Amino acid sequence: MGETLEPDHVAARAPELPGPFAVGRYARKLQEEMRRRARVLLIGEVTGVGRSKVQAYFELRDGEGAVPCAIWLDDLDKAGLPEGALRDGAEVVIAGGPDYYPGGGQASPSFSFRATHIRLAGEGDLLARLEALRKQLKAEGLFELQRQLRRPLLPKTIGVVTAESGAARRDLVAGLQRRGWAGTVVWAFAPVQDRHAAPAITAAIQDLAARPQVEAIVVTRGGGSLADLWAFCDETLCRTVALLRVPVVSAVGHERDSTLIDDVAAVACSTPTHAAEAAVPLDCGIARLGLERSVAVLSRAAEGAVRARTPHLVALARGPARALRRERLALNQKTREIRAASERSLAERLGFQRRVAGVVLERAARRAAGAEMERRRAALHRAEVTLRAHEPERTLERGYALVEDAEGEPVTAAAEAVAAENVRLRFADGGVKARIEESK
Amino acid sequence: MTEKPESYEAAVERLEQIIDRLDSGQAGLRETLELCGEGRDLVAYCTAELDAVGEGLKELKLDELATKLAGAAEAGA
Per-residue DSSP letters for A255-316? Predict the structure, then answer.
């Protein structure tokens, strides 16, 4: 090998203790120690029953642990148990104390609880045990968890744990049908009464809860003695149910039976029929009637709302017509006023024209006063016309322009214009300034 | 169409609110017509949910559910 031990291995020596003693002697002492321990009563479930020529042996267990037990056949006979009562799954109470068999040259040593008396657990024993367990789970708050879960009013799929053959199954289906519910039931069949029941039921519940479609789980079985229903008081089963996120409806036994699963479940029911109602809280038939009523209410409300507001709507609809009429009236009034004003103005103009005509007529009358006068007036007019023809303005009106210097004197020659440099051109309608730039 | 309700109970709860509001007579014309429209959608949803669990009880064993789901997954793949 050639490996060297690490220093700390070297240091790991046994502490300084008494001994070493011969092991056989020690084993005997151990047996004495064990036998000196107080004798007690134990309660639990029997498993792994076996027999030798002189004694029966089995394990006594519950959810927390187990003890190997042995009873001399003489003591077993004295116990007077019914034939076959000491079997796997039986709940028993035993009296005795711990013992140690030191073995021998060939025989193996063993520890066991040496029972001197044995009886089947009675209702009282189970109830006492149930109460202790109930108190413990309640103190841990496990009774509240399921009750806080939301239970769907109308699940589409529910899971059911029950015995494959049993009235509970039939009653549950009948209950669901009475509800008018015809969704999907997923059955997880399990034994409901023996020592395999509790683990099988626990596994079934867990399997159902693992399916996302399953919205609620019903656990049900018919009635029986507390011993028959004992699987539903199993601590592991009840802890599992308490911690599930899917609501569990329990319907185990009859009304007077109270199992621990009832305490941890979301709802505890007395019969499978009630469990159906708890798993599907909605009565589908009644719900359909309710919906029909809702439709009627909605239709009535819609029609009523329109009808109640019809007068208002009509009034609103009349609104524009009324406004139009008002405007039309106002417009007509304006039109009349304008027309009246216009007629007034026409009358005034006519009056004026009449006055002008009067003057003209008067003049005409005067003219008619004497032909001589008229002749002279004609001669004068001709002279005036001739004279007007020679006015520069008349020339300008024909398109000519008059060139004036700064003083307003006519410029009549190009040289004068160059000399003046700045001139004014006078047209018929006004004058403009002009500058002479060059001469030729 | 209003948003799909998250559950049957949510739909029923909203429907009851709507009917209470309509019964109060305080809703105006526009609100009334909107509530009636929403209410009808909710009734349609609830009816469909009831129809979904009204077509005959289906019974499966747990392992059949697993097989059915596996089949559905394969069909979907």
Answer: TT---HHHHHSSEE-SSHHHHHHHHS-S-HHHHHHHHHHHHHHHHHHHHHHHHHTHHHHHHH
Residue A297 in contact with partner chain B when CB distance is under 8 A: yes
Q: Which residues of B are less than 8 Å from A284 in CB distance?
A: 50, 53-54
The tens digit of pLDDT for each residue in B41-72 reads 999 999 999 999 988 889 988 878 777 777 77
With a cut of 60, say whether residue B5 has pLDDT above it.
Answer: yes
Q: What are the chain A neighbours of B56 within 8 Å (beta carbons)?
A: 182
Handedness of CA A109, A115, A119, A120 (dihedral sign): negative
CA A72 to chain B, closest CA, distance in angstroms equals: 46
pLDDT tens-place string over residues A131-143: 999 999 999 999 9
Backbone dihedral angles phi then psi of residue A219, each to the nearest 5 degrees: -115, 120
Q: What is the ipTM of this complex?
A: 0.82
How far does chain B reach from its first CA to its final CA, in angstroms? Answer: 32
In whole angstroms, give the CA distance from residue A275 to residue B57: 17
- A173 touching B (Cβ < 8 Å): yes
Residue of B nearest to A209 (CA): B62
| Phi and psi torsions of A434, nearest 5° | -145, 155
pLDDT at A2: 44
For residue A117, the cross-strand partners are: A95
* Confidence at B4, pLDDT banded by 50, 70, 90: confident
Question: Does A393 score more than 90 pLDDT?
Answer: no
pLDDT of residue A331: 85
In this complex, which of B8, B39, B62 lies closest to A298 when CB atoms are compared?
A: B39
Report which of A181, A189, A185, A188 is spatially closest to residue A157, judged by C-alpha positions.
A185
Report the SS3 class of residue A431: strand
Closest CA–CA distance from residue A269 to any residue of chain B (Å): 22
Query: How many Å lie between the alpha carbon of A298 and the closest alpha carbon of chain B?
Result: 5
A238 within 8 A of A264, measured Cβ to Cβ: yes
Q: Which residues pair with A268 in a beta bridge?
A: A250
Coil, helix or strand at residue A153:
coil
**Amino acid code (one letter) for A206:** Q
Q: Which of the residue ranges A172-176, A398-402, B54-58 would you say has the lowest mean pLDDT?
A: A398-402
Residue indicated by tokens 């699940």: A155
Residue A320: CB atoms within 10 A of its CB come to 9
